[in-house]
Amino acid sequence: MMFWFIPLVIFLAVAIFSPGPNNVIAMSVGFNYGFKRVIPHLLAVVVGFSIMLFVVGIGIKELILKYQSAFEVMKYLCSFYLLYLAYKIATSKPNLNTNEAKPITFKESLLFQVINPKSWIAALSIVTIYLPKDNFLAALFITIIISDILIVLAISTWAVLGKSFNKIFKSEKTTKIFNFSMAILLVVSVLMILFVE
Q1: Phi-psi map region of 60: left, alpha, beta (phi>0 left; psi -120 to 50 alpha)
Q2: Residue 188 counted as domain residue
Q3: Residue 192 CA: distances (Å) to CA of 7, 14, 60, 94, 95
Q4: Residue 96 φ/ψ, nearest 5 degrees
Q5: Do residues 182 and 89 make contact, with C-beta atoms less than 8 angstroms apart?
Q6: H or E segment to which residue 139 belongs
Q7: CA–CA dist 154, 129 (Å, integer)
Q8: Could you tell me if residue 43 is inside a domain?
Q9: Crossing angle, helix 21-33 and helix 68-91, to 10 degrees?
Q10: 113 C-beta neighbours (distance < 10 Å), count
Q11: Where are the transmembrane segments (predicted)?
Q12: 23, 162 in Cβ contact below 8 A?
């Protein structure tokens, strides 16, 4: 049956485009440093989620489902890391020289993908709910490609939106307000990770 990918694409689009840590980070970096400086984060999200989806798909799902305590550890690691990123965003100073500024690096972003429990839950949901049993490996690779395309579109959209806001709000004061707002959004996402089941 060829219609398995329709509900999958709907799920992926909602999960990937909706406001969340990766998109908030992309918007913040786009606002403060421009689109080019978002590319390491974008690549880290693509690489991290692709590997995660592949690993879950080829068999680690049983292990993850068996050891629920691992999710709890990942949840708290992710939360502390996001709070650290929120602090960095909130306290970052407006810097007109974007060549000297230092947004999130590829390594930092990749580390976040590894410990992000929401990404693991999304990968588990995809593998256990949306993928067909027949031609499973082919479906898994198609899903990885679709998710990569959607991630590139989503991160790019949020980054461009951030850059557009920068053109509107150019003063140091409005930049600080924007950064603080993005930090608050990250803190809200942490609270959702911790307290929303």
Answers
A1: alpha
A2: yes
A3: 25, 17, 26, 29, 31
A4: -70, -25
A5: yes
A6: helix 136-168
A7: 23
A8: yes
A9: 20
A10: 22
A11: 42-61, 73-90, 110-131, 138-161, 177-196
A12: no
Alpha carbon distance 183, 179 (integer Å): 6
Provide the strand spans (E) within 80-184: none
User: How many whole angstroms from its chain centre is CA 34?
Assistant: 18
Is residue 9 in some structural domain?
A: no
Neighbours of 120 (CB within 10 A): 25
Tokens 């976040």: give the residue. Answer: 112
Task: Record the tokens describing residue 88, joined without a space.
Answer: 């960095």
Of residues 2 and 58, which shows the higher confidence score? 58
* Rounded-to-integer distance, Cα 106 and Cα 48, Å: 10
Mean pLDDT for the stretch of residues 45-59:
92
pTM of the predicted protein model: 0.76
User: Helices 39-55 and 106-115 sit at what angle, rounded to 10 degrees?
Assistant: 30
Class of residue 181 by CB neighbours under 10 A (exposed 0-12, middle 13-18, buried 19+): middle
Here the tokens at position 172 are 């140091």
* 63-117 residue pLDDT tens: 666 766 766 776 677 677 778 877 877 787 655 444 445 788 999 999 888 887 7
Cα–Cα distance, 37 to 43 (Å, whole number)? 11
Which range of residues forms the domain containing residue 74? 37-94+101-195
Tokens of 135: 């031609």
Q: How many domains does the chain have?
A: 1
Q: How far is CA 134 from CA 1, 4, 131, 139, in A?
A: 9, 11, 9, 8
